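[step 3/7] fold_predict: job queued, chain A
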Amino acid sequence: MEKLNLKDVTQYVETNIGTFHEKRIQSLDDLRLTQVLKRKNPYLFKAKHVLTAEKIISGMVDAHISSNEETIFGDWLEGLAIFINGKVYTGRKSGIPNIDLEFDHNDTRYIVTIKSGPSWGNGPQIKKMVSDFTTAKKTLRTGNSKLNIVAVNGCCYGRDNKPDKGDYFKYCGQKFWEFISGDPNLYTELIEPLGHKAEERNDDFVKSYSQMINKFTKEFTTDFCDENGAIKWNKIVELNSSTVAPKKKKAGSKKTLQQDLFS
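[step 4/7] structure written:
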């Protein structure tokens, strides 16, 4: 075990944080209005009495950004965690499917799957993770049947005061960063370097965001508003929820909607 040098962490963050910001902007550049409209609940906007194109667009785009950024930053934090663990325990990115990190400490092989926060999955997803841990253990013990293996679900923020889950341990927030680094204060020490050029990077994102809102608002007004500016809600719902149009039937053939759906 090597003592973590925070200068190494700062240098890594400053060198790589740009990737996160670039992916944020790229996610906007790749976005299309129809994609946004198909993913969000049109009934909710109608129920909330949203009457302007700009409010609908900003609401939908903001929801997309919030969800997408969590994923992008979660992936970035995974890379940071692997880097830190590599410096301390010579850990590495695992070659086993669905296992993010492997390292050895005190005659134990740790296999780790890294998530952003503690509430990352539902029951079936957690069962899948446990199954992945079981498979990974079998794979590792193929070459060493006596290998002591401990599975860990690491979460970059939050807390879980009952870490022993039986089949695996769940370490969140401070416990996770201490687990991979040996430093109980790392979870707070990470905050400062993460802000490297944040204002400058965010200015670029805001510029792209504003352009996207303007572009989508213009498209929305053209395609989903009438000549008086009123929103054509039926057209939005049809785009979002209509059944795929069936193939043309032969002349004289008649089917009810129920027959179409269940045939």
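[step 5/7] annotate
DSSP finds eleven helices and five strands in the chain.
The beta strands are 92-93, 101-105, 108-115, 149-155, 169-172.
exit 0
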